[in-house]
Amino acid sequence: MPRLGAHLSIAGGLPRAVDRAVATRCEALQIFTKSAGQWRARVLPPDEIVLFRRRVAETGIEPVVAHNSYLINIAAAALPLREQSLAALVEEYDRAEALGLFGLVMHPGSFTTGSEPEGLRLIAQGLRTLLRSRRRAAPLILLEHTAGQGTNLGHRFEHLATILELVDGSPRVGVCLDTCHLLSAGYDICSEQGYRGTFEAFDRIVGIDRIKVFHVNDSKKPCGSRVDRHEHIGKGCLGLEPFRRLVTDPRFARLPMLLETPKLDTPESRRKGDADPWDMRNLRTLRRLMREGE
Fold first, then answer.
1. Using CA atoms, how far apart are residues 14 and 33, in angstroms rounded to an integer?
2. Is the backbone peptide bond immediately before 63 cis, with ω within 30 degrees of 0?
3. Where are the beta strands (DSSP E) in the chain?
4. Residue 210 near residue 227 (C-beta atoms within 8 A)
5. What is the dihedral of CA 20, 22, 27, 29, to 10 degrees?
6. Any idea what DSSP says for residue 208?
7. 234 with 243: CB under 8 angstroms?
8. b/e per residue, 243-258, with b = 16+ CB within 10 A?
9. Please, where are the H alpha helices in 43-78?
10. pLDDT of residue 153 exceeding 70
Protein backbone atom coordinates (compact mmCIF):
# COMPACT_ATOMS: atom_id res chain seq x y z
CA MET A 1 0.00 0.00 0.00
CA PRO A 2 1.15 3.58 -0.52
CA ARG A 3 2.49 5.45 2.49
CA LEU A 4 0.12 8.31 3.24
CA GLY A 5 1.23 11.55 4.86
CA ALA A 6 1.16 15.32 4.65
CA HIS A 7 3.23 18.45 4.51
CA LEU A 8 3.50 19.59 8.13
CA SER A 9 4.82 22.63 9.94
CA ILE A 10 8.29 22.83 11.52
CA ALA A 11 7.17 25.60 13.91
CA GLY A 12 8.92 25.04 17.24
CA GLY A 13 11.78 23.13 15.60
CA LEU A 14 12.19 20.32 13.10
CA PRO A 15 11.45 17.50 15.59
CA ARG A 16 8.02 19.03 16.20
CA ALA A 17 7.08 18.17 12.61
CA VAL A 18 7.63 14.50 13.44
CA ASP A 19 5.41 14.86 16.53
CA ARG A 20 2.72 16.39 14.32
CA ALA A 21 3.09 13.53 11.86
CA VAL A 22 2.56 10.99 14.64
CA ALA A 23 -0.51 12.85 15.93
CA THR A 24 -1.93 13.03 12.39
CA ARG A 25 -1.31 9.30 11.80
CA CYS A 26 1.08 9.94 8.93
CA GLU A 27 3.25 7.19 7.50
CA ALA A 28 5.33 9.64 5.43
CA LEU A 29 6.13 13.32 5.80
CA GLN A 30 7.06 16.45 3.88
CA ILE A 31 8.56 19.57 5.47
CA PHE A 32 10.29 22.82 4.71
CA THR A 33 13.69 22.92 6.35
CA LYS A 34 13.53 26.74 6.37
CA SER A 35 11.04 29.50 5.63
CA ALA A 36 9.77 28.93 2.10
CA GLY A 37 9.42 32.67 1.47
CA GLN A 38 12.88 33.82 2.56
CA TRP A 39 16.35 33.44 1.13
CA ARG A 40 18.07 33.41 4.50
CA ALA A 41 18.01 30.18 6.50
CA ARG A 42 18.75 29.77 10.18
CA VAL A 43 21.64 27.44 10.99
CA LEU A 44 20.39 24.04 12.10
CA PRO A 45 21.86 23.27 15.55
CA PRO A 46 23.57 19.88 15.72
CA ASP A 47 21.39 18.77 18.63
CA GLU A 48 18.23 19.58 16.64
CA ILE A 49 19.50 17.52 13.72
CA VAL A 50 20.27 14.59 16.02
CA LEU A 51 16.85 14.76 17.70
CA PHE A 52 15.04 15.01 14.36
CA ARG A 53 16.81 11.97 12.97
CA ARG A 54 16.19 10.06 16.19
CA ARG A 55 12.46 10.87 16.18
CA VAL A 56 12.13 9.79 12.54
CA ALA A 57 13.86 6.48 13.34
CA GLU A 58 11.79 5.91 16.49
CA THR A 59 8.46 6.55 14.80
CA GLY A 60 9.12 4.69 11.56
CA ILE A 61 7.80 7.60 9.53
CA GLU A 62 9.40 7.30 6.14
CA PRO A 63 10.22 8.49 3.68
CA VAL A 64 10.64 12.11 4.75
CA VAL A 65 11.18 14.69 2.03
CA ALA A 66 11.73 18.44 2.04
CA HIS A 67 10.20 20.96 -0.34
CA ASN A 68 12.57 23.74 -1.30
CA SER A 69 11.92 27.49 -1.18
CA TYR A 70 9.47 29.00 -3.63
CA LEU A 71 12.00 31.76 -4.35
CA ILE A 72 14.47 29.44 -6.03
CA ASN A 73 14.47 29.69 -9.84
CA ILE A 74 17.44 28.07 -11.56
CA ALA A 75 15.73 28.61 -14.94
CA ALA A 76 16.00 32.40 -14.59
CA ALA A 77 17.65 34.21 -17.49
CA ALA A 78 18.94 36.96 -15.18
CA LEU A 79 22.36 35.91 -13.90
CA PRO A 80 22.09 37.39 -10.35
CA LEU A 81 18.80 35.55 -9.64
CA ARG A 82 20.09 32.32 -11.14
CA GLU A 83 23.29 32.41 -9.08
CA GLN A 84 21.37 33.24 -5.90
CA SER A 85 18.93 30.43 -6.68
CA LEU A 86 21.66 27.86 -7.27
CA ALA A 87 23.41 28.80 -4.02
CA ALA A 88 20.09 28.46 -2.16
CA LEU A 89 19.37 25.12 -3.82
CA VAL A 90 22.77 23.76 -2.76
CA GLU A 91 22.13 24.99 0.79
CA GLU A 92 18.72 23.29 0.90
CA TYR A 93 20.19 20.09 -0.51
CA ASP A 94 22.88 20.13 2.18
CA ARG A 95 20.18 20.53 4.84
CA ALA A 96 18.31 17.55 3.41
CA GLU A 97 21.51 15.51 3.52
CA ALA A 98 22.24 16.53 7.13
CA LEU A 99 18.71 15.53 8.16
CA GLY A 100 18.91 12.16 6.40
CA LEU A 101 15.99 12.92 4.07
CA PHE A 102 14.93 10.79 1.13
CA GLY A 103 14.75 13.70 -1.26
CA LEU A 104 14.29 17.38 -2.02
CA VAL A 105 11.20 18.35 -3.99
CA MET A 106 11.72 21.36 -6.26
CA HIS A 107 9.71 23.25 -8.86
CA PRO A 108 11.85 23.20 -12.01
CA GLY A 109 11.64 26.99 -12.48
CA SER A 110 10.30 29.74 -14.74
CA PHE A 111 12.03 30.98 -17.88
CA THR A 112 10.89 34.60 -17.14
CA THR A 113 12.52 36.82 -19.79
CA GLY A 114 14.27 33.96 -21.57
CA SER A 115 12.81 31.14 -23.67
CA GLU A 116 11.41 27.72 -22.86
CA PRO A 117 14.33 25.73 -24.38
CA GLU A 118 16.88 27.99 -22.69
CA GLY A 119 15.05 27.65 -19.36
CA LEU A 120 15.13 23.86 -19.57
CA ARG A 121 18.84 23.98 -20.43
CA LEU A 122 19.56 26.21 -17.43
CA ILE A 123 17.64 23.91 -15.07
CA ALA A 124 19.66 20.93 -16.23
CA GLN A 125 22.90 22.93 -15.99
CA GLY A 126 22.09 23.88 -12.41
CA LEU A 127 21.26 20.30 -11.48
CA ARG A 128 24.49 19.02 -13.03
CA THR A 129 26.43 21.59 -11.00
CA LEU A 130 24.71 20.50 -7.80
CA LEU A 131 25.13 16.78 -8.40
CA ARG A 132 28.81 17.13 -9.35
CA SER A 133 29.52 19.14 -6.20
CA ARG A 134 27.73 16.61 -3.95
CA ARG A 135 28.73 13.31 -5.50
CA ARG A 136 28.36 11.27 -2.29
CA ALA A 137 25.15 12.84 -0.99
CA ALA A 138 22.12 10.57 -0.69
CA PRO A 139 18.94 12.68 -1.18
CA LEU A 140 17.22 12.56 -4.54
CA ILE A 141 16.33 15.68 -6.45
CA LEU A 142 12.58 15.37 -7.12
CA LEU A 143 11.33 17.53 -9.98
CA GLU A 144 7.74 18.48 -9.29
CA HIS A 145 5.38 18.51 -12.24
CA THR A 146 3.74 21.94 -12.23
CA ALA A 147 0.35 23.44 -13.11
CA GLY A 148 1.89 25.67 -15.78
CA GLN A 149 1.10 29.14 -14.50
CA GLY A 150 2.82 31.96 -16.37
CA THR A 151 6.24 30.94 -17.65
CA ASN A 152 6.56 27.98 -15.24
CA LEU A 153 8.33 24.99 -16.73
CA GLY A 154 7.62 21.37 -15.88
CA HIS A 155 3.91 21.29 -16.71
CA ARG A 156 4.44 19.07 -19.75
CA PHE A 157 5.88 15.60 -19.44
CA GLU A 158 8.19 16.54 -22.31
CA HIS A 159 9.75 19.25 -20.11
CA LEU A 160 10.65 16.68 -17.47
CA ALA A 161 12.00 14.30 -20.12
CA THR A 162 14.20 17.02 -21.59
CA ILE A 163 15.68 17.91 -18.19
CA LEU A 164 16.38 14.25 -17.46
CA GLU A 165 18.02 13.80 -20.85
CA LEU A 166 20.21 16.85 -20.24
CA VAL A 167 21.41 15.46 -16.89
CA ASP A 168 22.33 12.23 -18.70
CA GLY A 169 19.48 10.30 -17.10
CA SER A 170 21.00 10.57 -13.64
CA PRO A 171 19.38 8.09 -11.21
CA ARG A 172 19.69 10.80 -8.55
CA VAL A 173 16.87 12.77 -10.21
CA GLY A 174 13.27 11.63 -9.84
CA VAL A 175 9.80 13.10 -10.29
CA CYS A 176 7.07 14.22 -7.91
CA LEU A 177 3.61 14.19 -9.47
CA ASP A 178 0.86 16.40 -8.03
CA THR A 179 -2.73 15.40 -8.81
CA CYS A 180 -3.93 19.02 -8.76
CA HIS A 181 -1.13 20.08 -11.09
CA LEU A 182 -1.84 17.23 -13.49
CA LEU A 183 -5.44 18.33 -13.93
CA SER A 184 -4.62 22.04 -14.11
CA ALA A 185 -1.91 21.38 -16.70
CA GLY A 186 -4.43 19.62 -18.94
CA TYR A 187 -4.00 15.95 -18.05
CA ASP A 188 -7.59 14.81 -17.46
CA ILE A 189 -7.19 12.05 -14.88
CA CYS A 190 -10.85 12.24 -13.83
CA SER A 191 -12.12 9.48 -16.11
CA GLU A 192 -10.80 5.93 -16.16
CA GLN A 193 -9.69 6.37 -19.77
CA GLY A 194 -8.02 9.71 -19.00
CA TYR A 195 -6.22 8.28 -15.97
CA ARG A 196 -4.94 5.33 -17.97
CA GLY A 197 -3.89 7.52 -20.89
CA THR A 198 -2.07 10.00 -18.66
CA PHE A 199 0.14 7.39 -17.05
CA GLU A 200 0.71 5.59 -20.34
CA ALA A 201 1.95 8.90 -21.74
CA PHE A 202 4.13 9.53 -18.70
CA ASP A 203 5.67 6.07 -18.99
CA ARG A 204 6.34 6.54 -22.70
CA ILE A 205 7.80 10.04 -22.39
CA VAL A 206 9.53 10.00 -18.98
CA GLY A 207 9.38 6.49 -17.53
CA ILE A 208 7.02 5.35 -14.77
CA ASP A 209 9.96 4.34 -12.59
CA ARG A 210 10.97 8.02 -12.28
CA ILE A 211 7.95 8.70 -10.05
CA LYS A 212 9.19 8.70 -6.46
CA VAL A 213 6.58 10.82 -4.66
CA PHE A 214 2.98 11.94 -5.16
CA HIS A 215 1.33 15.09 -3.86
CA VAL A 216 -2.35 14.23 -3.42
CA ASN A 217 -4.49 17.34 -3.73
CA ASP A 218 -7.87 18.02 -5.26
CA SER A 219 -8.15 21.11 -7.48
CA LYS A 220 -10.30 24.22 -7.15
CA LYS A 221 -9.80 24.86 -10.87
CA PRO A 222 -10.82 22.73 -13.87
CA CYS A 223 -8.76 20.73 -16.33
CA GLY A 224 -6.43 22.88 -18.42
CA SER A 225 -6.85 26.01 -16.29
CA ARG A 226 -3.10 26.16 -15.57
CA VAL A 227 -4.01 27.61 -12.17
CA ASP A 228 -2.61 25.97 -9.02
CA ARG A 229 -5.28 26.00 -6.30
CA HIS A 230 -5.42 23.01 -3.96
CA GLU A 231 -8.66 21.67 -2.51
CA HIS A 232 -9.59 18.95 -0.01
CA ILE A 233 -9.83 15.37 -1.29
CA GLY A 234 -13.11 14.84 -3.17
CA LYS A 235 -14.21 18.47 -2.75
CA GLY A 236 -12.86 19.89 -6.00
CA CYS A 237 -12.80 19.33 -9.75
CA LEU A 238 -11.11 15.93 -9.43
CA GLY A 239 -13.65 14.29 -7.14
CA LEU A 240 -13.00 10.94 -5.45
CA GLU A 241 -12.52 8.52 -8.35
CA PRO A 242 -9.01 9.59 -9.45
CA PHE A 243 -7.81 9.21 -5.86
CA ARG A 244 -9.45 5.79 -5.61
CA ARG A 245 -7.56 4.70 -8.72
CA LEU A 246 -4.30 6.19 -7.49
CA VAL A 247 -4.23 4.69 -3.99
CA THR A 248 -5.14 1.24 -5.34
CA ASP A 249 -2.82 1.33 -8.36
CA PRO A 250 -0.30 -1.52 -7.87
CA ARG A 251 2.39 0.44 -9.74
CA PHE A 252 2.44 2.99 -6.91
CA ALA A 253 1.82 0.66 -3.98
CA ARG A 254 5.00 1.56 -2.08
CA LEU A 255 5.25 5.26 -2.88
CA PRO A 256 4.64 8.15 -0.46
CA MET A 257 1.46 10.12 -1.16
CA LEU A 258 1.49 13.45 0.64
CA LEU A 259 -1.30 15.95 1.28
CA GLU A 260 -0.75 19.64 0.60
CA THR A 261 -4.38 20.54 1.22
CA PRO A 262 -5.53 23.61 3.19
CA LYS A 263 -5.19 23.55 6.98
CA LEU A 264 -7.70 24.58 9.62
CA ASP A 265 -5.39 27.30 10.88
CA THR A 266 -7.15 28.99 13.80
CA PRO A 267 -6.02 29.74 17.36
CA GLU A 268 -8.53 27.19 18.63
CA SER A 269 -7.31 24.43 16.32
CA ARG A 270 -3.69 25.12 17.28
CA ARG A 271 -4.54 24.88 20.99
CA LYS A 272 -6.20 21.51 20.53
CA GLY A 273 -3.02 19.74 19.54
CA ASP A 274 -0.70 18.79 16.75
CA ALA A 275 -3.18 17.11 14.41
CA ASP A 276 -4.91 19.35 11.91
CA PRO A 277 -8.59 18.30 11.59
CA TRP A 278 -8.61 18.67 7.81
CA ASP A 279 -5.45 16.59 7.40
CA MET A 280 -7.04 13.88 9.55
CA ARG A 281 -10.24 13.99 7.47
CA ASN A 282 -8.38 13.85 4.15
CA LEU A 283 -6.23 10.92 5.32
CA ARG A 284 -9.34 9.06 6.49
CA THR A 285 -10.88 9.59 3.06
CA LEU A 286 -7.82 8.21 1.29
CA ARG A 287 -7.64 5.20 3.62
CA ARG A 288 -11.33 4.49 3.06
CA LEU A 289 -10.73 4.52 -0.69
CA MET A 290 -7.85 2.09 -0.20
CA ARG A 291 -10.03 -0.30 1.84
CA GLU A 292 -12.84 -0.15 -0.69
CA GLY A 293 -10.40 -1.09 -3.43
CA GLU A 294 -9.09 -4.19 -1.68
1. 7
2. yes
3. 3-7, 28-31, 64-67, 103-106, 109-110, 140-144, 152-153, 173-178, 211-216, 218-219, 230-231, 256-259
4. no
5. 20
6. G
7. yes
8. bbbbbbeeebeebbbb
9. 46-59
10. yes
Name the region of 262 (left: φ>0; alpha: ψ -120 to 50; beta: rest): beta
Amino acid (1-letter code) at residue 112: T
Q: Residue 218: exposed, middle, or buried by beta-carbon count in 10 A (0-12, 13-18, 19+)?
A: buried
Asked if residue 278 has pLDDT above 70, the reply is: yes
Structural domains for the chain: 35-251 (3.20.20.150)
Among 115, 41, 100, 44, CA closest to 72: 41
Q: Is the pTM of this model over 0.85?
A: yes
Question: Which residues contact residue 21 at a Cβ distance below 8 angstroms, ignoring those fewer than 6 apart?
Answer: 5, 6, 8, 29, 59, 61
Query: Which pLDDT score, from 0 to 100, does residue 234 have?
Result: 98
CA–CA distance, 202 with 131 (Å, rounded to integer): 24
Tell me the C-alpha to C-alpha distance, in Å, between residue 254 and each of 134, 143, 233: 27, 19, 20
